[in-house]
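The records we work with from here on pair a chain with its fold. A complete example follows; check for yourself that the lines match position by position.
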Amino acid sequence: LLGTIALVSNSRHNARGYDVRLELHGMRDSIAVGLEDKLPLRSVEPGATFPAGPPHDFFMDRFAPAYRAELTAFTEVVAGRATSPCTVADAIEAGWIAEACALSLAEHRPVRLEEVREA
């Protein structure tokens, strides 16, 4: 569906190193996040050279630049030098998603956002 909002959060450690990646397959496209030279996978295909680098050992090894960028953006907003990239509507939507996730976990069933918005 066009305009669909999705939130995916996951991380894990595998035997070869720190691993965080996501693949999304849809009707019009397939995309991946986290396919980089330090991906902790080993190909068994003859002659394969991907991934080329040593795997990440720790989440800070992988995400330090992102954390620095987030902290910089936050301090710019707090100092009044920038506007927040997140709107009030974004925050409310995240709250509804969290509420639906909590209810889904508690009741072991899918929960649509409309259900929690109506409660």
Notes: The radius of gyration is 19 Å. Helices lie at 59-78, 88-107, 113-118. The first strand starts at residue 12 and ends at 14. The mean pLDDT is 86.
